[in-house]
Amino acid sequence: MSNPTLDHLLSRRSVSANSLTEPGPSAAELEQILTAAARVPDHKKLVPWRFVLFEGAAREEFGQVLAEVCRAEETDPGAFRLQNEAKRFLRAPVVIAVVSRITDSPAAPEWEQILSAGAACQNLIVAATALGFGAQWITEWYAYSRGVRAALGLADNERIAGFVYIGTPKEKPEERERPRLADIVTSWRS
Ligand SMILES: Cc1cc2nc3c(=O)[nH]c(=O)nc-3n(C[C@H](O)[C@H](O)[C@H](O)COP(=O)(O)O)c2cc1C
């Protein structure tokens, strides 16, 4: 029997950031997408994530930050690389930084809080795709850069779980090979 949620999960594909274009989600759609992301499992209700939105002119402004950090952190990046960094966030109408934030909790160890942030990234993608948009979860170099951390004002207990790019797909992505269940599923036996 067909089920729309399952059909979506069984057919969803990421759309490369380079294959995204306008329009992006409306304000109401973006609120739905973010609300879905904030509904992920969260042991001890610590809310171990937060979201930073990049829309409109902020994407170009943050591109300048990326180019400056790239120049400071990399050896001789070259003009072409710096131009690309300046345009990086213009690949999609909306980019959402998912920030994992850890609270000291003996009942919900750090690992579980990080997993919850990963689930938030996936819910962003699933919700955006359900609304007909394309989305991709990306880290690239700037998720791990000290300079970008500083520019985003991340606290010591915070890390980037990913940047989720959302927009309209320019083309439908081709299916890609998936692991065979026989290779990854076992039944436990005593
Ligand atoms: C934590 C994480 C980081 C990722 N970073 C990148 C990245 O920097 N660049 C990239 O092309 N894909 C990255 N990916 C992979 C894409 O999100 C996506 O899985 C891939 O394009 C395959 O598409 P699919 O979701 O349809 O399988 C990352 C995935 C995860 C889970």
UniProtKB/TrEMBL annotation:
The protein, known as: Putative NAD(P)H nitroreductase
This protein's UniProt keywords: Flavoprotein, FMN, NAD, NADP, Oxidoreductase
One MF annotation (Gene Ontology) recorded for this entry: oxidoreductase activity
Requisite cofactors: FMN
Taxonomic superkingdom: Bacteria
Residues in Nitroreductase domain copies: 10-167
Family note: Belongs to the nitroreductase family.
EC number(s) stated in the UniProt entry for this protein: 1.-.-.-
Annotated InterPro entries: NAD(P)H_nitroreductase (IPR052530), Nitroreductase (IPR029479), Nitroreductase-like (IPR000415), YdjA-like (IPR026021)
Cofactor note (record): Binds 1 FMN per subunit.
Lineage of origin: Bacteria, Pseudomonadati, Pseudomonadota, Alphaproteobacteria, Hyphomicrobiales
Cited SUPFAM superfamilies: FMN-dependent nitroreductase-like
Pfam families: Nitroreductase
UniProt-listed Gene3D superfamilies: NADH Oxidase
Annotated FMN binding sites: 12-14, 39, 43, 137-139
